[in-house]
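Incident log, structure service

09:12 report received: a user says their structure output differs between two submissions of the same chain.
09:20 pulled the input from the user's history:
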Amino acid sequence: MKIYYFILTLFFCSISFAQSTISGSVKDAKNEPIPGVNVKVSGESLGAITDATGKFVLKTPAKLPFTIEISSIGYAAQKIQITSLSKKVEVVLLMEDTKLDDIVVSASRTPERIRESPVTIERMTIRDIKKSASPTFYDGLENLKEVQMNTSSMSFKSINTRGFATVANTRFMQLVDGMDNSSPLLNFVIGNMIGISEIDVQSVELLPGASSALYGANAFNGILFMNSKSPFTSQGVTAYVKYGQTSQQAAGTNDYTDYGVRIAHAFDKHFAAKANFSFLNATDWFATDYNEYQNGAITGNTRSFHNYNGLNVYGDEASTNIRNVGQTLANLGILPASAVNLLPNYNVSRTGYNEIDLTDNKVRNAKVDFSLHARPFGNEKLEIIWQSKFGFGNTVYQGANRYYLNDFFMQQHKLEFKGKNFFLRGYTTTEDGGNSYDMLFTALNVNRAWKSDSTWFGQYAGQFVQSTLGGATPAQAHAAARATADTGRLIPGTDAFKSAFNKVISNPDVLSGSKLVDNSRIYHSDANYNFKDDFKPVEIQVGGSFRQYQLNSFGRIYTDANGPIYYNEYGIYTQAQKKLMDDRLKLTGSIRYDKSQNFDGNYSPRVSAVYSAGSQKNHTFRGSFQTGFRNPTTQDQYIGFNVGSAVLVGSAPDNLIRYTETLPVATPVGQAFAGGTTVVMTGVNAYNNSYTAASVQAFAALAGSNPVAAAALLKKSNAGLVKPETVKAIELGYRGQIKGFSFDVNGYYNVYNDFLGNLTVVAPLYGKAVDNPNIAGGPTDLGAQSVHALTNGNTRAYQLYTNTNIEINSLGVGFGVSKKVYKDFELSANYNYAQFDFDQSKDPSFEAGFNTPKHRAKASISNDKLFKNFGFNISGRWNSEYLWQSTFADGMIDAATVIDAQVSYALPKLKSVLKLGAANLGGNEYRQVLGAGLIGQQYFASLTINP
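09:34 re-ran on a clean worker, output below:
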């Protein structure tokens, strides 16, 4: 922290220059002050923003006379000539519904009005942020059309647009000031943990749908742009503090705090700097779903069930066939051979620990960033920016397991050169896993710390036999056996449990620990040039990017035990745009070529047309067609991660060889087939010698009664190595104004091929996986040997990364409307319909993971001038139920209705705004991710100084 203050001191040390100072105020037609208005000298980069009282002070080196420009979203801009410095400037801005005239850049990489955008685009402005009823502006994104949030933790929310997204949304990009916020290790965005402070947000733009033609392979289903304020135009000190409480049935009522400060100063027209700090501290939503799920449904089994595997209970994944345990004990002479058949021929699981006992359930997030801005020519012709961002804290990420990211740290550093028609930037992203750990392996290895699996299951089997011989029923025998095996169990909260817990989470060895180790990084550069001032007939842009991944998990997650894995990709693109027919028709065409190290290059073309009808050109019709693609992520290619129930193995050819493990072989016959008591398994076994998990489950259900028929159900997996997935996207839309109503309607149709997904398989430790193996083939028949392996538990489960050969179609319709209904009351509403379709019979093991409601509706009513200094906003959203599919769990997500509300009061003399807000006002707890905690209520009060 001392270093941080030292840096701030260097930034803002006093420098004197000869400057002129003008001051004034900006009001509306009702004589009410307007905060957040931009005031700047024409032709200059320096500017100011009005405070809560509508007042501003602007310093400029310009000599009299000069002209200032006053603008704010929702008002008609004005220009005023300044001839005297002694006279205060009094400005009255008139209301103007300009939402469709707002300028955006993201859709075409060039400034254009929203109404002229060739694709659907959603926008959140400073004004939207100020009136939002959500606890944070990032939470407020959920009220935008097309957005569905996937909440893994209070501080980890993943944006889903157009479906096919889990918490790990690798099909969506998030750029903050041009930098990709994705984790180098995980390849997806971790919410706003290293994003942007809400008092530094200038604008937020969202492009749902494929954007590969301009932004590359990762912009497959959408991209979010968050742009921060410039210290040249937004100066001074701004601070906020929020205090409130969260309420959840499982967690109770807990405090919530969030505060931040922004300091920015333009020393002159050549140099400016800014710094931000924010910190959030809260208690997370407790994850307490103790139901057992199987095949997407709740089984009804409770903890008394012998093979219980609760959703938010970990450690009970340690499961084995109890009769096989008895046979092993009999072979060792510990149990009479005659007693083996008293044991049931099914699996029993160890007693697990609840998730809430494996984490402190705290959410913390600190963000620090600073930047230096130089304009050598004193204007926007050239600006040089150095920016550094730091984010660290605690949160929960849900992938194949639930992971507590504890003291997680991520940093980005950028050097950028930009001007009116170009930019050139390079940045690096580095992360450190800190003290993060896997909660499933924490529970497994805490259990093993006080009693090994073999001892626990052996005691269980022995007591079950004794209880059965004593006349106990099966249920009574199971209860007695568990009680005996659990003797000595470490109880959460005790010193013994804490000691074992701390030892396990600090150990990265998966056999005895659960710590996640990571020091991966990304090096990225990109550039763009627009020839619009050099070539008038057509506006032409060219650009490109290069990225290198350096994967370094020290062998804990990737197969990088012998050193980092380096992986490169690059892309180039061009775009041409032309206006015709008195600028009513705008045609755009673009194409991008991307090459990834392990795959052939791909082209992504896009063509679009926008036609503006009406005498005022205020009815625009748009249509676009593009193809996009997504390269397999670094996880898809290089992961080698044991998650307990399976091993995740990436399918890069060299990865299959690098991943190896030595496994024990049970039973003498099995050892004879394997040629020893252990066998070495590699990724080659996973991909080339395995059965589909679905066929193994079917086999297991029938093997006891009809082994021949059961063997006929076995299907060899035929998973190919991953390759890029592709999409063809068609979109049509309309934007316009009719009698004061602003409309935005869009529809899309997507066709996906080579869709990337996961396939769970079971590999025998010996023998050969074949379709319909002949169990009567004798001991030399490799198919029969594989059946023996399945029957006796001599197997290893793997999760493979592969493509499905089926075609997936998705379509959706969106409708948005807004209007000022009475005086300053603003009403808005939107609706989205989404569905997908594919032939499951062609690939029975494939899970699409659409994870999106078919119906979503949102509405809000607000008035930031209800009466003097008072404003309010009420927003609501509803979604239908939908199926959740992920590697962690499958099941239904219930329909939900959520209402947020806030009232605000301006304190002009203090240049501050007080806000009281409530999220989920109705109090009905809901979930967005199966496995995460139910989302409860959140109440808060905030004070923003100099907003």
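09:41 both user submissions now match this output. Likely a transient worker issue. Closing.
09:42 reviewer note: The chain has a mean pLDDT of 92. Residues 100 and 114 are 5 Å apart (CA to CA).
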